[in-house]
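Page 42, continued from yesterday. The earlier attempt failed because a stray header line got pasted into the input along with the sequence. Redoing it now with the clean sequence only.
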Amino acid sequence: MSSRPELENVKQRGFFVEVHNNDVNKALRKMKKMLQQDGIFQTLRERERFEQPSMKRKKANARAQKRWQKKLKELRNLGIAR
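This time it went through. Structure tokens are written below.
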């Protein structure tokens, strides 16, 4: 039960971190970790500038090719692929 009854029926939206014992630095670290795990920072970085759809596709293809090469290298190390 909340110590503030007016907040009992309020639905939580977004991210929040409770601050215990006035330890704001710990709360900030927790918040930063939550945002990183959710991918918020990555999204912000991607949206800093406009990127043409053709460049998005090019980058996505490059990432896919890199993933494939990595997977192939792992398979070769296991002796499965040539």
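Notes: The chain has two domains: 16-49, 53-82.
Reminder to self: strip header lines before submitting.
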